[in-house]
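Wed. Picked up where I left off yesterday with NAD-dependent epimerase/dehydratase domain-containing protein. The coffee machine is broken again, so keeping this brief.
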Amino acid sequence: MKKNKVLVTGASGFLGGKLCHALLNDGYSVRAFVRHSSNLSSLPSTSSSAHFDLSFGDTTDIVSLINAVSGCDIVIHSAALVEPWLPDPSRFFTNVIQACKESESVQKIIYTSSFFALGPTDGGVIADENQVHHEKFFCTEYERSKVAADKIALQAASEGVPIVAVYPGVIYGSGKLTAGNVVAKLIFVYANASLIVLDLGFATASYCSYILVTAVMCDHLYSFNASLFYQLLLELSSV
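Structure written out below (tokens, as returned):
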């Protein structure tokens, strides 16, 4: 087994659960940070692996975070509310950072950002992590929250916190049909004739970035050896 122990916040979510399995398969010890009310069905069994354990708490509770990061070398912060119209408590990202600062073990924070944090392009331009959101408007509260969280990450990095951000597009793949896996969820609903699509004749062409969840998992692991903001390649790059 590798020496590194990794804490995954948002571990009961679509991406978080996949990350826990991938990390275990790659030889890491894993601690999943979950709420007492979380559905743990997508997580590995604690009884089947001596290298996987659970830590219960919430990002609103700094004490539970301090307990969770204790003894961990790397923290992957993938916890977020993905529903488009619900405000993501990005301010609680500061709790994660503070807990890591107080820890004597954490060597790096991997923050799961989003291509939404970079803002839209004017068409034909490929955005990367150097693009800055214009902040003139936000399509969703989720987008606004990711921009705010990026500022928190940049401030922390300027203060010497070893933090790396990755920017996946819209994540899709097999697994939970949640807001974090909206593409698969829409396909399932459409296939069951529960979704009606209307062509009213005035829609304009637009493009979005999508990425398979297995690619996101791999890039999180690659980012362990990256510094500051890590570019996550997008399968469709026009936003």
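Quick read: Residues 230-239 have pLDDT under 50 and may be disordered.
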